[in-house]
Batch of 4 targets.
Target 1
Amino acid sequence: MKQTFDINKLVRPNIAALKPYSSARDEFTSNGSKLVFLDANENPIETGINRYPDPQQKKLKQRLSEIKNIPSEKILLGNGSDEVLDLIYRAFCEPGSDNVITLPPTYGMYNVLAGINNIESREVMLSEDFQPRVKEIFEEIDNNTKLIFLCSPNNPTGNSFDEDKMTELVENFKGLVIIDEAYIDFSENASWIEKLEKYPNLIITQTLSKAFGMAGIRLGICYASKDVIKILNSIKPPYNINELTQNRAQFKLHNLAEINREVSDILIERKLLLEALLEVDFIEKIFKSDANFLLMRVDDATKRYNQLIEKGIVIRNRTTQPLCENTLRITVGTSEENKKLINVLKQLSANK
Ligand SMILES: *Cc1c(COP(=O)(O)O)cnc(C)c1O
């Protein structure tokens, strides 16, 4: 960055002044030695879950640190990325006066969280080819603009944002840029994690909900500078990641071969699905995807959506989203599920 970046100028004053809640397990944790814990009013009968979970999730972060090649102090975990995003709003945006930039059509949660936190969301539509319009974004920025949300690969469009455009934003915006990489493992592009060192105003979010196949355990991951992580840590609920989640996540993260196999299977299925969809005559366009879903434009999205529901197949109708008129979003399923979808689409196509 050209200007020196000072996170203390961005954080809300009440958050900077906060004395975080200190939980029993924060003050004293076992280092493997046998200790008698009579400090947290837990039930002493061992069941594997009778104790409070580690509030700092040390083992899980250690594993992520090894996999992602980044120090644990630059990692924060949340109850899904949604909690991470909410913490970012609450740490840096003053309700009623600050604003953020979002780029529709994109992930709906950014605006929902803006609404909950009483923060103005300034929407700068993506271009026709679903890329950020950098000049227009800078025109919307003022002294109260704290955050810009970039979702890449983007949901619901599936494409990745242009690297040069993202760089221009990160290098010239004085607030924080959040890059939501929920779908990065399906993309050929590298994660921005490797650029954290260079850009202190960068926050990257990832999740175990998509490629890692663990939407049910709710684990979102935030990578940022130590200073940003320290601030977010000071406001997170002490036990936000439960014991079952910490254990299951660690187990899965020790089986990277399985995860890689699943991702490459999904990518093969995505290709097969795309090829089959090209044969369906009411599908007018299928957008290029770097994610585990395909966005396609059809003759009449609502009609086709309802027809699929009748056949027991649930997809997402995105027709009300800006730039997404008559589009449907389809998640890549198993081979069998995709075949069923294709068969139904071909039937509908024959019947008109
Ligand atoms: C699915 C998705 C997430 C995941 O949210 P979790 O709360 O971690 O399940 C985050 N961002 C985008 C853009 C998504 O599509």
Target 2
Amino acid sequence: MKSHLYPTYARADLEFERGDGVWLYTPDGTPYLDFAAGIAVCSLGHNHPHLVEALNTQAGKLWHTSNMFRIPDQERFADRLAEVTFADLVFVTNSGTEALECAFKTARKYFASKGHPEKYKLVTFEGAFHGRSLAAISAGGRDAYLDGFGVRVPGFPQVPFGDLEAAEAAIDEETAGFLLEPVQGEGGIRAFDVSFLRALRKLADEHDLLIVLDEVQTGVGRSGQLFAHELSGIEPDIMAVAKGIGGGFPMGACLTTEEVGTCMVKGTHGSTYGGNPLAMAVGNAVLDIVLEPDFLPTVRKKGLKLRQKLAQLCDENPDIFEEVRGEGLMLGLKIKGDLAEMVGACRDQKLLVVAAGENVIRLLPPLIVSDEEIDDALGRLSGACTAIRETATKSGN
Ligand SMILES: *Cc1c(COP(=O)(O)O)cnc(C)c1O
């Protein structure tokens, strides 16, 4: 039968009925090892008892009231984020795109409120991905996502990845700041150098510009730090967060300092659903776990182990892999051959991975992945290599 869904996705003909930890199960009970985690969303795996309990308890009490009223769990969520980050102010959204939209508006309003409404541009970097709204695709700057959607939202000049000189040269009277992912996700797990991030922060400070970080994918423990910018020691002025922060519940947040965010006065922004009681029950439950003292050190340990194993895999299969990249449990393998073939070969081994730019497969397991599951994934990746080689031999390549 003809599908009534927008044909916007090249969906695999595969469905899952339930999940448990790092595992997903098809309706016939076949287990898949989930190193995609819904694209870095299911940070605590599937069916986490603490999250399920928080959701179920809240579901029986109150779902939604609107931001016309106080939402104590939203206040608590913001307090907790402010406590552990650079930020003083938090706006809660339903998605990453909306968190970025709030970030763009905050940056523009900040300068407008200081008497500089002409400063509205955020300089971006090639390979960026910031979501799919009109502003977000304009910020991402990728033609394939922009084609056919009319005039670009102005104000997002783009310079080559990691090019400090170009970033400096892009500054003009209208520049408000820089926008970047500390590690590009969709772009192919490309990390900006620590030295670049520090130099960019310095450049921004010299010119009184803002650093806006998109930590939608890198945030909430994915990099082994609570937020990836901590690896470089720099702090942003505005930061967009989503994905892992909801553990699978659609949720995001825009964080900023008091200095910058105070301009967003009554009526300047809003959201019907953002930060509703149901979402905040889950958001706080995710924080309960991620903020436990042992959580991030364990993520770092697992990340190191996975990285070492992947490096070994690359050494053993130089015909297939080029390199390992990334931080923490946000890792990528650059493939020499066909990317879709590799993703498919992994899927045949019942291992879920995500394709990214620059011919990279992303490994984004739930942050609770065990050592055994890491070993298991490596076995499946080896199996995928063998299968790809066999196919190549059969077709006479
Ligand atoms: C996923 C993602 C977004 C968009 O988030 P949505 O929740 O899909 O709107 C923005 N930026 C980055 C870096 C992302 O990975």
Target 3
Amino acid sequence: MATIQCATTTLILLLLLLLIIPRSNSQQEYVNNKQLDCNNEYNSTKGNLCNSLPSCTSYLTFKSSPPEYTTPAAISFLLNSTPALIAAANNITDVQTLPADTLVTVPVNCSCSGPYYQHNASYTIKVQGETYFSIANNTYQALTTCQALELQNTVGMRDLLKGQNLHVPLRCACPTQKQREAGFKYLLTYLVSQGESVSAIGDIFGVDEQSILDANELSTSSVIFYFTPISVPLKTEPPVTIPRAAIPPEDSPSPPLPPAPAGDGDSDSSKKWVIVGIVVGVVVLLILGAALFYLSKAFSGSTTTKATIPTTQSWSLSSEGVRYAIESLSVYKFEELQKATGFFGEENKIKGSVYRASFKGDYAAVKILKGDVSGEINLLRRINHFNIIRLSGFCVYKGDTYLVYEFAENDSLEDWLHSGSKKYENSTSLSWVQRVHIAHDVADALNYLHNYTSPPHVHKNLKSGNVLLDGNFRAKVSNLGLARAVEDHGDDGGFQLTRHVVGTHGYMAPEYIENGLITPKMDVFAFGVVLLELLSGREAVVGGDQNGSGEKMLSATVNHVLEGENVREKLRGFMDPNLRDEYPLELAYSMAELAKLCVARDLNARPQISEAFMILSKIQSSTLDWDPSDELERSRSVGQISDSSR
Ligand SMILES: *[C@@H]1O[C@H](CO)[C@@H](O)[C@H](O)[C@H]1NC(C)=O
Ligand SMILES: *[C@@H]1O[C@H](CO)[C@@H](O)[C@H](O)[C@H]1NC(C)=O
Ligand SMILES: *[C@@H]1O[C@H](CO)[C@@H](O)[C@H](O)[C@H]1NC(C)=O
Ligand SMILES: *[C@@H]1O[C@H](CO)[C@@H](O)[C@H](O)[C@H]1NC(C)=O
Ligand SMILES: *[C@@H]1O[C@H](CO)[C@@H](O)[C@H](O)[C@H]1NC(C)=O
């Protein structure tokens, strides 16, 4: 009797289930941990099934994962989304660094490719030894599967090499006819966290449990697994901050990893209260969030959205917090940049991949960079120094980043000093006073980078080509793409070493070329070379054939000039003829002495940039006293130097 009753109940339940879950209401059968079985193909691992909608907006979720994927900019590179969209969807800024494991929603375009929905991304293998599984499970956090990767790439599982570029199909979906009729607009690919149940996930997004079960062909008694994606149908855009798992990890009784039971039938009453509390919280948040979202949308009518760094960021801030918080970067649309640069026309090309842009009459420089440049963005937006080029905004488009900088009207120092090759051949040369100002400005910028940023930074690529000049010939140090944070662990040389030596020939310090040693003293060396360029007008490297034999380093010439007999004559001969003797030889001598110390082979013999900055401050104030028209004064200075140099 009991068995018959049981059987009928089961039958009724099954019938009910069949009625409730018509196949056309589902995206795909739940992956059910099959993504771990890379050697076998399953329909569910290939992707969600296409229905009548060919494409739609969809959402992925991703957990901020240090060291690399912690900013919307970096995450969007990985997932082929747009930093500004991620920022807007999560109420953060494009370059905000998120704490580890913060769940962000990532809006993407989802479309049909064969029978499956997917969003295409691409990935370049970084380290030898990465596998389809590690890429799918660890790098992409199960947003794709090893099976789908293998299916859509020609490279065999065992032939993966560093540097190879892979096509990455990310799992997404569009609502079915049935779901659309029920009011669902989007599908979100959700990464299940430890201890989460379907109902808890439903609570987070304000969706009833049954709709989620339907979308994944699950029943209330199904088991869902940690770190296996699940499709969540949504009637509205997802909330800007996703409240994390119903049970905080600390108090969590740490249920076994897979499987974690679906449903909360086993929860005790205190847990229920937690969930009730969260439901209320979520509802309030959802209402508030939606209201704020639409309000902010309504008010951001202008095409350029100002992404103001929210004050909640203080967790990642040091003493710079206050300034950080008030600074803002503009996020440009690609179309705006196209318009401002005349479609990146040749006439607006400044040099290389740098273009002049005009925003309503205000000039800016737009530089196109490949790959992830969030490091430079993150550094520059924290910097507020007159002598370091200011980043005003950026745009990410088709994998390229467009950085928008303040405009330096007079191009680079290189353009002015090394005439013959450049367009300033016919203009007047830089005067002594201007050169001293420029040297002082550059020292000021480096001093700031070395001693006033936290952590300290090394520019690593200082050269006259990276010293830009504004309308008043004040210097702006630019191109911080190679800049690195350095921590000095005491005097016993706790500095970083690199095997990847990059820089500009003629400016690289010997210890960096030979041992890859990165210290602030490498900037001091390059600064010395720039000083020598300012004095002599010569280039950092001259002569030499294609193999570099026969070339002369400017840094190697100064000792010869300043040592031995006839220093006065030799220095005069060394000075830039464009200065036409209109400089105080005594001060030129002091500057050459400083340059000589800066380019010393032994890095310990080089001054700190702060010392160089002080010496230049003195040279600058003496220069201000110096009257170029006073011939008598000038000859007296010359007289003094011949005395003092003996
Ligand atoms: C998998 O998909 C193929 C083609 O779409 C279909 O013929 C087959 O029945 C599916 N298998 C399962 C187990 O659903
Ligand atoms: C989807 O594509 C449309 C048009 O191509 C674009 O405007 C939109 O920003 C895209 N959405 C996402 C999330 O990338
Ligand atoms: C995504 O990639 C697949 C396979 O390479 C391709 O067939 C499809 O057209 C791509 N989809 C989009 C929207 O680019
Ligand atoms: C898959 O990735 C998650 C998150 O990084 C990790 O916890 C888990 O151990 C990985 N699984 C395997 C089998 O490596
Ligand atoms: C977005 O962040 C700001 C600053 O942290 C906060 O004041 C605001 O309430 C947030 N908006 C939403 C919708 O959460």
Target 4
Amino acid sequence: MFVSEALNINEKNHLTIGGCDAVELAKQYGTPLYVVDETAVRRHCRTYKDAIDKFYGGNGLVFYASKAMCNLETLRIVCSEGLGADVVSGGELYTALKAGMPAEKLCMHGNNKTYEELVYAIESGVGRIVVDNKPELDTIDAICREKGKKQKVLFRIKPGIDAHTHSFIMTGQIDSKFGFALETGEAHDIIRHALTLSSIEVGGVHCHIGSQIHELEPFRQAAVVLAGLIADIKAETGYEMKEMNLGGGYGVMYTEDDDPIEFDKYIEAVGEALRAACDEKGIALPFVMMEPGRSIVGTAGITLYTVGGIKDIPGVRRYVSIDGGMCDNPRYILYESVYKALVANKAGDAAVDKVTIAGKCCESGDLIGKDMPIQSVEVGDTVAVLTTGAYNYSMSSNYNRIPRPAMVMTKDGESRIVVKRETYEDLIRNDI
Ligand SMILES: *Cc1c(COP(=O)(O)O)cnc(C)c1O
């Protein structure tokens, strides 16, 4: 019945997460409240890591895409599980370094890394920078020459696979702000150019084909396409790139309509496809990297709210207003994302109600979801929205000057604060 193995129902008919009563957590820490189960995060990290060992002889590294949920404790946990991290800004880089992540296990992304961010990344010694465009490559080379450093880079490639559609198509992806196109020869050109730069170590190629993907085939195809590029460059220049980063995008369960694939299956499928492609093309098996974000933290997290007003509009719908909304979870207003919600204090009851959960911001689109099936809701109930671990806290805002919620982690029936609730004082901290 649940979208996450971290969730259960106790003898009081209350939702539990990581063995903690969600209603008690709401009382103890207040709402809105992000709750993340540490055990689930660790389990997801291990699934990926073990799969690289089992299906790919350990010849790879898993990077946690920190943009999914970026704070010190999450990065410490991921780091202690042996994963590296992806960062896409100076702020994410700073957080990862402060969390103790070794710089060589960091991968720097972004389609417009500023000069200052590039200097920061290079001076910190990040293991890899994923190059997005030619001016950026030349800037990296110039910074490295000035500092007497050599930087390993990967190239972000548009493999021409659109995995956002269900029947993915092989064209039409040239129109993306990220990376170098294959079809136009742009990808080949930039790699040949990089091979002439003395301060650049050409590590390999990268792609990221989308997000919340529930199929194996796009990943297989992406791996084969990138292997083809490695073989092309080898044939043209004699230089064989050793690394391939296949990005993230592995889907998770938001509602019962999602049918995610076990994470380790991705590595198994990609491993098989790569072995065949590399054999055929006469190149060595590359060192493989993956960058899961959502699938590490997504189902590990829930958000707890308290129900305020309830409004019945006869023949239209029933609005249930909560004490959070688009500030802590902007995914409905951004993408009309679908979530599962339940009344945490009646978790085992049948979902007999159908309600539209509304946030408290001054926007009609500020909803958690429309016409969501849920237990019968009353004022004062604790509502839990599930699968909010990814892209909720990290996308949160202070719109309407609403302080960000606290984040609590659970582990084996214990809970602790990992991000403090913002105060009104925090809101004006930088105002002059
Ligand atoms: C967003 C992103 C990821 C993570 O994607 P998920 O869908 O959260 O797994 C990985 N790599 C890159 C380059 C990204 O932009």
